[in-house]
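Memo to structure team: turn this sequence into structure tokens by end of day. - J.P.
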Amino acid sequence: MLDKRLVIITGHYGSGKTEFAINYAIKIKENFENVSLADLDIVNPYFRSREKKSLLESKGIHVIESSIHSTTIELPALSSGIMGIIQNQNMHSILDVGGDPVGAKVLSRFSDLIKENEYDLFYVINGNRPETRKKEDVINYLKAIENSSSLRATGLINNTHLLKSTTIVDVEYGHELAKKVSWELDIPIRYEVAMESITDKISNKEIEDKFFPINLYMREEWMS
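Reply from structure team:
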């Protein structure tokens, strides 16, 4: 992978950024010894990467969460360990950030420190969300997140899905949407994301070249 040592995952609420962050951390672990994932979502109480702490730590991935250890409350309390993984040159780290500009605001606390290091900020796009079905809406959300975080996006991730009902049509629609955003903002598409079951249905070479298959770790078997 050509990604930087420090990777920040953000996007609109419901884009699937946390699912991607977990899969990404597991993939990175295949190539690097020291990997950490920091849950910086202090806005949304549901579907947080910290919920999979046991799974991630069983794979040797260090998980950092808010210093308030509760599954029922969310307070703006962030572990001091976050500064450590931002600066640690021997650690490949993923920051899973809360959705929307409000969630991304937490990054502004660390933006100066982040800028001292090489980083990637990936913006996750789900073209099936009502708020991000159009190019203009995607761009507006991206710019709002950049302004809120005081950081600039370096890559786009097409994660257009309908959970377990996702088809190749959804992936292709998201690909075309991401391409329009990429052309206008001059930000490259870094990954095309879908469940592994989609793999043999891909015929578009552009999607195939950047395809990132995932498992649905955040969706229990009984969930649709």
